[in-house]
Structure formats: structure tokens, C-alpha cells
From TrEMBL:
Protein name as annotated: Uncharacterized protein
Domain of life, per lineage: Archaea
Amino acid sequence: MTVRYEVVGALDRGVVDAMGGLGSDAILVDDGDEDLLIAQPATGGDDE
């Protein structure tokens, strides 16, 4: 089973460290920048 994720926001690394991570089904994506991207399972169709 394949699950598509979509980026829904970004947080500064320091904020994420202070929070201790995220709850729910969100994941953090490290793209090497100062911010960590927040992604959640995509709910829409294949509009892309």
C-alpha cells in the first residue's frame, strides 16, 4: 500500500526540539534547510 504525503507547513528546528516532536499522523521531513517540513497523508485526488 502506498500513502502519499503533502507538505502542510514548516517549523524551525529549535521549535521542534522544544516540542519533542509531533503527534497524530504528521511526519517531519528534513530537507537540509533550517526548517523541518510538516507532511500529512494527502486527502485530495491526483490533481497534479
